[in-house]
Amino acid sequence: MATENAENNSFFLSVQRNFEKAARHTIFDRGILDQIKACNSILRIKFPVKIGEDVEVIEAYRVQHSHHKLPCKGGIRFSMEVDQEEVMALAALMTYKCAIVNVPFGGGKGGIKIDTKKYTVFELEKITRRYTSELCKKNFIGPGIDVPAPDYGTSAREMSWIVDTYSSLFPNDINAQACVTGKPISQGGVRGRTEATGLGVFFGVREACSFKEDMEKIGLTAGISGKRIIVQGLGNVGYHTAKYFQDAGATLVGLIEFDGAIYDENGLDVDAVQAHRKATGSILNYAGAVSMSDPAQGLEKPCDILIPAALESVIDKNNAERIQARIIGEAANGPLTSEADEILQSKGVMVIPDIYLNAGGVTVSYFEWLKSLSHVRYGRLEKRFSENMYKELIDIIESTTEKQVSKLERKMILRGPDEIDLVHSGLEDTMIGAYREIRDIYMAEPGVEDLRTAAFICAINKIGVAYQELGIFP
Ligand code: NAD
To answer: For the chain, which residues make up each domain, given as ranges?
Structure first.
C-alpha cells in the first residue's frame, strides 16, 4: 500500500482547488466535503517482469478515489509520467465525472510507469497480465469492486488481456467479463465504446455551441458548421473527435502530435493525415500544410475551438496568454493548469471542463458493464419487434391515405435499433442532459464564474446527497 505522501504535487492540488472553489456554493458540512475529496484507497505496487534476459521492476498504481458508489471505475494509463499524484488526480476526476453524467460508479484510476514504445507486444502483454494478477491479489479489480478501462497508452487489446487474466483466476465468476470495459466485441465489449469519448466530446461542444446568446458573448455564431478546429493528440480520443467535427462541417485547421504540428487554414482531412502518418511515421510534411517541429506552437495558431486530447498541463501560465481559441474543449484530463485557467477566463475564453466533456467514455463503459452483467446484446430483444410495429403502422397509413411510402422512406422507417444506435443515442442524451444541468447552475448560481465550477457544484451536490443518505458508519 502507498507509503509516499504525494498530495503536494500540482495536478492533484489543482483538482482539490477546483473542488474547494465549488464547495463554497454547496450546503454540505466540512466533514462531508472532506470525505468527498479524499482518496479512499491507494495501491502502489512494484513487480518483476522478465524482459529478454533481464528482470525489470515495474512500478504501477491503482487508486480508488471514492467508494460512495461501487464499483469504482476509471481507465488504466501506460506512460512514463505516471506517478501516485497523477493517478490520484485522475481518480478524483473520475468520481466527479461519473456523478455529472449520472453513472452509478465511484471514481478510480490505474497507471503503469512504462514507455510503451520500448516493449514488444508480447512484453506489454506480460506486464499487463502481471499487473492484473496483482490487482486480483489485492482485491482491486472485479465486476462489483473496481472496473478498469482504456486510457492514454492502452486500448481494447490491453482490456482483452485483463479480462482473460481475471477470468482464468476466477473461473466460477459468471460475471467475470464485467471486470473491465473497453473490451473487443468478441470478448464482451459493446459497439460504440471505441469512439465514445471522442463522440461525447463532439456532442458536448455541439451542445455548448447551440446557445446563441452564449456564443455571441464570445464573439462566435451558434452551430458547428464552419468553425475552425485544432486538435492536439491523434490517439483514440483526438482522432474520433476530429473525425466527428469534420463530418459535421467544421474546418479542421490544425493537428498536433508529440513530434510536431501541422496547420492549414483551408482544412485538413483527418483520415488522409492518419494515412500520411502511417506511411511516413509522422504527421509533419503533410501536403499543403505548414509543419512546425515544436508541437506547442500548434496550440497557439488561430482557431475558434481548441481541443487538447493528449496529456495534462499542456496549457500553463507560460503559453495561456498566446492561445487564440475562443472555446477550449478539454478532451484530455487536466490539460489546463489552474493558472492557465485563470488567464483564459480573464480573456473571456469559454472552457468546457474535462469532468463533463470527456465523460462519454465512462458513459458507454457503463452501458458495456450492464451488457456484460445482463449477458445480452443491446437491441436483441426489441429490434425485430420494433421493425414489425413500424411495418404495421406504415401499412395502416398507406391503406387509409391510399398513398405509397417510397422504398427509401420505408427502409429508413422500418429499421429497428441496433446496439450501436442505442449506444450512440444513450450517449447523446447523456451529454446533452448533463451540459444543460451544468449550464443551469452556471446561469442561476450567483458568483459562479465558469463552467468548471458549475460542473464541480453539480458533482458535489449529487455525491454529498449520496453520502448523507448513505449515513456514515458509526
Ligand atoms: P491515446 O494513447 O490513444 O492517444 C494519445 C495521443 O497523444 C497519442 O497519439 C500520442 O502520440 C499523443 N501525444 C502524446 N504527447 C503529445 C504531445 N505533447 N502533443 C501532442 N500529442 C501528444 O490516449 P487517449 O485514450 O486518446 O487519451 C488522451 C487523453 O484523453 C488522456 O488525457 C486521457 O486521460 C483522456 N481520456 C481518455 C478516455 C478514453 O476513453 N480513452 C476517456 C476519458 C479521457
So the answer is: 40-187, 196-357
**Ligand 1 within 6 A of CB of 195:** no
Catalytic residue among 69, 109, 113, 227: 109
| 472: CB partners within 8 A, 6+ apart | 35
Q: What is the pLDDT of residues 329-346, one digit of tens each?
A: 999 999 999 999 999 999
Please indicate whether residue 192, judged by its CB atom, sits closer than 6 Å to ligand 1: no
Could you tell me if the CB of 259 is within 6 A of ligand 1?
no
> Closest residue (by CA) to atom 24 of ligand 1?
152
Each residue's pLDDT tens digit, 144-160: 999 999 999 999 999 99
Per-residue model confidence (pLDDT) at position 7: 41
Is the beta carbon of 197 within 6 A of some atom in ligand 1? yes
Torsion of the alpha carbons at 446, 447, 450 and 456, rounded to the nearest 10:
-80
- Per CATH, the number for 196-357 is 3.40.50.720
Please, are residues 95 and 462 in contact by the beta-carbon 8 Å criterion?
no
**pLDDT tens, 44-74?**
999 999 999 999 999 999 999 999 999 999 9
Catalytic residue check, 137: no
For residue 234, the ligand 1 atom closest to its alpha carbon is 9
**The pTM of the whole model exceeds 0.70:** yes
CA angle at residue 200 from 198 to 204, to 5 degrees? 120
